Amino acid sequence: MTLSLTPSTSTAHPVRAARRRAPARRKNLAGWLFVAPFGIVFVTMLILPLGYALYLSLFRRALIGGTRLVWFDNYVKAFNDPSFREGVSFVIRFSLVLIPVQMAISLAVALMLDLMVNRFARFSRLMIFMPYAIPAVIGALMWGFLYSKNFGPLADISSLVGADAPDFLGSKLIFWGLFNVVTWQWAGYYMIILFAALQGIDPSLYEAARMDGASQWQIALRIKIPLVAPALLLILVFALIGTLQFFNEPKILQPLAAGALPEDFTPNMYAYEQAFNLANYNYGSAISFSLGAVVFVCVYLFLFATRKRGSFLS
Amino acid sequence: MLSGCGGGDDDSAADGAGTASAGAGGGGGGKAANCTNKVRNEQAPVVTMWAWYPNMEKVVDNFNSQNDDVQICWTNAGAGPDEYEKFQTAVSAGSGAPDVVMLEADRIPTFQVQDALVDLKGLGYEDVKANFSDGAWKDVSVGDGVFGAPVDGGPMGMIYRKDVFDKYGITPPKTWDEYEAAAQKVKDAGGPLFGDFPANQPAYVTALLYQNGAQPFNYSPSDGGTIGIDLDSEAVKQVLDYWAGLTSKGLVGKQDQFTPEYISGVIGGDYATYLSAAWAPGYLQGAGVGTGDDKGVWATAPLPQWDPSNPVQVNWGGSAFSVTKQADNPELAAKVAFGVYADDASLEEGWKNQIIFPLSLKVLNDPAFIDYKVPFFNGQQANKEVYVPAANGYQGMTYTPIGQYFYTAFTKQIAAINEGKASGSEAADALQKDVEGYAKEQGFTVQ
């Protein structure tokens, strides 16, 4: 059977394939051309630099003695480096506190705005989203001034109750100072994503729920939240990756609070310090890749955990 | 195309290249120079330069109008660390550096060890050697080589609020013990803080260490990168414990300096003293100090001493012009490095406005400079009483290629002291361990 079949297919195929291949190839070429603008930028701006950084991270450069190949020694060093480990531990602790609060705020606001259908709702939506439209650099600088004990509003408010202004740029409160800046900046953005997801829910579901006697609370908890769970998952992953790579806000506030924000405050700041201040691009690259590994592991663990529970939150 | 290196418009890069190639025989080479200043003589070779002195534009114009055979194309690439990051990137990349770069003296060895700077011996150093003190030359030298043309320094003194001192009946303290006693007296009477212990100014604290006779570093590039690190000596511990005591007693501030927060505190009268360098009045006035209600209340006195019978003078800050290895024509670049900010007009403009404290002996020995009644100090002859003696007594410091790391590590330890997490001695021990570890890792032999 097989013997008789094989020749027939082998003769039949080339004819059909040859007729098909030419247009297919043309289609392929067109496809590649469409992808090319992105592909070129992607390869030259992302893949090549990444490859180069990976290559750099395999060498060790000393001020005396020059550069030599050490394979993965830099990575061993990074994971044993207290500066890197403390930085990673900080961003993980920061994520654990920040992300739940941020999500709770953005979800609560999105649910509220979803219920309101007046002009005030549009205005509030814009206002809550506004911080995201302010560049991170300017936002952080602005908060630097707002936190000032000498001329910030905090000082005025505190003096009303006769207390000393809290020093959000001091080492004790810097965690909450940064927490506030990041929440302010990103909660509005997450709110818009959740709001869009809520708007996409079929209103007939609400009608059906109301007919069954569900209250607004029950609709929110039983219908809305489960249905926007994929969006919640998405922003969780965004927030996790963003927070583990924490850099902008502490780096910009650093000139105002050098004592509370040392150069190795977060892993990304430490990589920057190594590369651009200490001229150690090799170790800086190794730290960046090590951070990448930490981010990958954290995101993977998170996705794995949520996948196992089935449809997340339900 | 006629405008040469014009302003910031898009064409100026191309124009600059045109100018440079017109004078291609000399320094400009093919570098597309985008100058902030206007090059006067477009036929002359061009030397590119990064510097951030506030009056740099005038200084460059002075040089360009006085020299026909070479012209400066100047850019402000940021002050201090901002410039160093750019310069470091250019050094690592092997291109993109200017011909002449302004560096603070403590940064010179960091770049010298990377073979980024040109030794100026034989390039005009001998002609100007007599114009500067030995201490000034030591600060810009690494081993036997000279890697910068000194411009300004920062002999230190104690700037204080005369009105506050009068109010609480104290005279400028001569020793650190007296300083603490005065601080305590003022605090008990509900007065302001007696200075500040800033985590972000490790160079300032390092000067205070030197003042107690500490020699934290020993470095000579010739013997294969051997470095001596002595940051846990008794002298260092004594100074750090002293300041740890002042901060824990609440006698001094813990505020980072050169921040809006700090300067608003100075203006608001939070501080009775500011232990700082001769350039401080320029900085303070620029920030609005001494121009409002606090006009005429500032005065200056010599820094308190550990041993008044054996006073030690120290220095904070000060910059030099170095020639980079990327310069096409090092001779011409060295001529610029030694010549710019060395003419009388520029120097006078610099010191009269307290933008710089010049190191040129021409100025330091000039009666007009010595006797100058400084308006910021309400007519006090600050140079004669405080800064010239401090500059003359200054012995120089030893800077090393690991200076940048040392400052980063020191910042952490000062912060730890301010937070009460470490005593001065503990901070000194931790600092020694940290810096020593880095030096070894960087291939130095640590003594």
Distance between the ends of chain A: 54 Å
H/E element sequence of chain A: HEEHHHHHHHHHHHH
Radius of gyration of chain B: 23 Å
Q: Can you give the mean pLDDT of chain B?
A: 88
Can you characterise this structure?
The complex is a heterodimer of chains A (314) and B (447). With 314 residues, chain A is mainly alpha-helical. Chain A has helices spanning 2-56, 73-80, 82-115, 119-133, 136-146, 153-160, 174-199, 203-211, 216-227, 229-244, 248-253, 267-277, 281-308, and strands at residues 59-62, 66-69. Chain A has a single domain (75-308), classed as MetI-like fold (Orthogonal Bundle). Chain A has a two-stranded antiparallel sheet with strand order 1-2. The longest helix of chain A is centred in the first third of the chain and has 55 residues, at 2-56. Residues 1-12 and 310-314 of chain A have low confidence and may be disordered. Chain B is an alpha+beta fold and 447 residues long. Chain B has 2 domains: 12-153 and 320-370, 3-Layer(aba) Sandwich (D-Maltodextrin-Binding Protein, domain 2); 156-316 and 373-446, D-Maltodextrin-Binding Protein, domain 2. In chain B, helix 10 crosses helix 19. Chain B is globular and about 70 Å long. Chain A binds chain B through residues 62-65, 145, 148-151, 169, 171-172, 255-260, 262-263, 273, 276-279, 281, and chain B through 81, 84-85, 88-89, 91-92, 110, 113-114, 198-200, 224-225, 254, 256, 258-261, 264-265, 268, 270, 401-402, 404-405, 408, 411-412, 414-415, 418-419, 441-444. Chain A: It is a multi-pass membrane protein.
